[in-house]
Amino acid sequence: MFDLRNQLIPFLFTAVSILLFLGCGGQPEEPSPQPTTTVSAVPPTPESAPKREIYHPEQDAAAEIKQSLIKAKMDNRHVLLVWGGNWCGWCYKLHDLFENNEPVSELLEEDFIVIPVDYNSNKSLGAQYSESITSFPFLTVLDASGEVLVNQRTEPLEEGDHHSPAAVLKFLEEWKPKPQEANTVFHDSIVQASRENKLVFLHLGSPSCGYCRLLDAFLWSKEIAPLMEKDYVEVKIDLARMEGAQEFAQQIRPGGSGGIPWFAVLDGKGEILATSDGPNGNVGYPVAQEEIAHFMKVIGETSKNLNPDQLAIIENSLVEGAEKLKARRA
Question: Which domain holds residue 77?
Fold first, then answer.
């Protein structure tokens, strides 16, 4: 782990020794605080430094955190800030563990939104969350409202020259969000829709489902979410993470054929008005032309406050998303 304090002590000792040797009474110019590792006092050379960047100094970290908190609230997840920099070898070690250790990566994917934050570019932002960020990587866990749940130095998670997968997993398990109950989440959405004179846009999904993540990203995007909010209370039932979700899915969608994601529009009494089941089956996240047409038919027939231009924005966003997906497959 990199520690700013460990870097300053040997430097100051050396500087003072040189001044005494030269008989100079002036003060040395304070160096730029570039962290070094507790394992070696020599910073990595360009040849040995990691080549891929996991931190981006130009990022608008505050805006990214704000947007992530919106997603966290919608998906019952916590936000994990990983303070560090591309100069930090231990940061790369933790990042590799996050990516390559299956239990850790699965838990992160299901319960957290991970944001690497370049510390040198965001010192004032870091001070808002903790005054003790002096070693790296440094972890901050936020709940969906943005409140700090825990600030964690990573020394206790280290084991020799690496991070202990068991210790990291234990930390994440301790600070992941508590599971929601599917029927309660659904009931709350019906109550809200009735109170606000809106409809419910319900969708079933799972973190391991790629098309489910695409539908989530579409519905929660800056462009689409404000439009959908005009007529719908959006609610996701997570089949993997919510208690009683499988039983709820069987009730709302008997048989469950056609895979996920699956969506339905319901009124304030809980009556189903339309679903993603089109002429050729469940359209899920719509990609094909006929799938997009069915999605737009559902929205067009159930919305009351979306004008033609706004409906066109929704449709164009789906078309653009489908084209990007097809291009990646090509």
Answer: 61-175
For the stretch 233-292, pLDDT in tens is 999 999 999 999 999 999 999 877 789 999 999 999 999 999 999 999 999 999 999 999
* Final residue before a domain boundary, out of 175, 206, 225: 175
Are 201 and 281 part of one and the same domain? Answer: yes
Six-digit token string for 77: 């997840």
Report yes or no on whether pTM surpasses 0.70.
Answer: yes
279 CB-near residues (< 8 Å, 6+ apart): 290, 294
